[in-house]
Amino acid sequence: MLNPKTTHREFFGVPGSLAVMTGTTAVLYVWYFSCNEHNGCQLPMSASQWSHILASAANYRAYLSLEALTYYTMWWLWLALLYFIMPGITLKGIKLRDGTQLAYPMNGLRSFFFTAAVWAFVYKKIGTAPFLWIADHYFQLVASAWIFSTLQALFVYLYSFRAPSVETPGKDIVMLAHAGNSGNPIYDFFIGRELNPRIGSFDFKFFNELRPGIMGWVLLNTSFAIKQHTVYGSVSNSMWLAIVPQIAYCIDTLVFEDKVLTTMDITTDGFGWMLSFGDLTWVPSMYSLQARYLAFHPVHHSTWFTVFVAVFGLASFLVFRLSNSEKNAFRTNPNDPALKHLKYITTESGSKLLVSGWWGMARHINYTGDWMFGLAQCMATGFDTPMTYFFSAYFLVLLLHRNYRDECKCRDKYKKDWIRYCELVPYLFIPFVI
Ligand code: NDP
């Protein structure tokens, strides 16, 4: 059966889905209203702070701006246009359950550089005004991204009913995600009903994954640095410490755009509210928190601290990048002479699992590097408030949950070979510790 009914609901089913949708939206509110240029940046502890946040939330209409929504929609459409017209090779994704393979245009990096060139042109011709507008209308843009991502999720959910999902003679059927076919509209809307919603060659999930949100994050960071320069006359070393690694991370993601085709998001998860909101709203708004904070609270670090954070960040990035690249290179061509020093086990499924090099140190050393890299960017904000460390706390939960899902998947796929692999590589994240 191509689209079996979903029997196991993740995130505790409907109550959990509702909790995630309201909870993540509430976090956006709480973090904005507790950490801004008017109120400073304090963890809300007192009743008066909470009543201020609740009053702001009740006054949400003040943050709904047609102008911001129009600009946001133009941003999305601009990148969608580049998706079609930017040159780039086309790669095929993994083989789907029905034996087909979808084609994806690898032009994200070119789209980014072209867009960045347009920003540079705008800066030269108009000056800082558009960037200051972005920094000053941050929350209106976040609200616009929320509306857009929710409407997009609603659209793809309804669109998934355009054709039958059970085999029907003479008719094309819609390929559903394993987790998105519960029949409950709230849960399926949240988790993503269709595996790869597409209009023609436009793939919603692949497009949203790395473009409007990731590039929007770079644009927000740039705008906050310009804002700080405009207000305080210079860009602080803390701002550079926060945004340079983040921009490098975004570019790195786009350089390795093809690797996204084998991630869980593309191969397994449906495209619903969770990914639509995560890609378009959560990533740019919460990941740019450090730069937003520094725009109104410039911190000046000593040279020693700056060097320490920069080296710590660079070392973490190398763990993340080298471990991911080692696995990618091995999976692409295990016979590459450059990899002949690596040891591996061959599983009954035919796949090979590395047991030396980075992957012999810990089963998810790449997550460790990624998390430490994020921590370095939080450290760039100094130690005046715990609020700017939100990313580290959230990312830890995300990676632990992702690790749990991946371990379950691999245990299921490799069975006794996975047990053998775990004996050979007993540590999860940090060698000799955990
Ligand atoms: P991984 O890149 O760790 O891939 C896990 C898969 O790799 C497993 O399912 C298995 O797949 C294969 N594998 C596991 N062990 C081995 C081994 N020893 N040898 C060879 N193959 C192995 O997972 P993700 O896709 O979750 O993460 C990729 C990167 O993206 C990470 O660095 C992560 O930190 C980052 N990330 C960042 C996020 C962000 O918001 N910034 C969000 C999510 C991820 P198979 O079935 O093919 O064997």
UniProtKB/TrEMBL annotation:
Listed transmembrane segments: 12-32, 69-91, 112-135, 141-161, 302-320, 387-404
From the UniProt record, list the coiled-coil ranges. Answer: none
Keywords on record: Lipid biosynthesis, Lipid metabolism, Membrane, NADP, Oxidoreductase, Steroid biosynthesis, Steroid metabolism, Sterol biosynthesis, Sterol metabolism, Transmembrane, Transmembrane helix
Which pathway or pathways does this protein act in?
Answer: Steroid biosynthesis
| Gene3D superfamilies registered for this protein in UniProt | 1.20.120.1630
**What Pfam families is this protein classified in?**
ERG4_ERG24
Q: Which domain of life is it from?
A: Eukaryota
Tell me where in or outside the cell this protein is found: Membrane
GO molecular function (one): Delta14-sterol reductase activity
GO cellular component annotations, sorted alphabetically? endoplasmic reticulum membrane
Q: What is its membrane topology?
A: Multi-pass membrane protein
Matching entries from PROSITE patterns are given as: STEROL_REDUCT_1, STEROL_REDUCT_2
What the record says about family reads:
Belongs to the ERG4/ERG24 family.
In its UniProt entry, what is this protein called? Delta(14)-sterol reductase
Organism per entry? Linderina pennispora
